[in-house]
Amino acid sequence: MKPKIDTVVQFSGLETGRYEYDYTLDNGFFEGFENEELREGKVNFAVVLEKRERLLMFNFAFEGVVKTVCDRCLGELDVPVSGEETLCVKFSNTETSDKEDVVILPEGEHQIDLAQWMYEYVAVRMPIQKVHEEGQCDPEMLQYISEEHEPSEEDEVRVLGEGETDPRWDALKALKEK
Predict the structure, then answer these.
(1) Model confidence at 81: pLDDT above 70
(2) Which of 44, 80, 93, 158 has its C-alpha lying 20 to 30 A from 175's C-alpha?
(3) Of 144, 142, 149, 157, which is closest to residue 70 (Cα–Cα)?
């Protein structure tokens, strides 16, 4: 699904120089991407395009808040995100680039959609561990987590006795010994 915000920059009619664009990414934008952890938020982007003869330089500065799920209590969590990134766009019909901050567009291209890069810049700024501040987690969930739960018969948990090994590992050990 395509994001519900126009992030396409038409550069073919622009003179060499500097151009500024402002975007507000909201829930409609984030819903256009398939990432369960990043579905809602509001992030403001200031994008500066420096158009040169055969090169486009995009400088992104962004700041906002995205909603995600707390890793500890599974409650809703607001995470602030901000950062600055640069994207270089070159034109060539034969050249390719393996650098993540350099994009090669075919000669004659007249526009570029920045949506994917803006989404990735926000996603990369998400912390690895997303938890509420101390004392902000759902107390009922924390109580449930702290209780010891015995496995039920449906859990099919098999505890190995002393000296007993898992038969799946036995097959691998037999291969190693050959």
Answers:
(1) yes
(2) 158
(3) 142
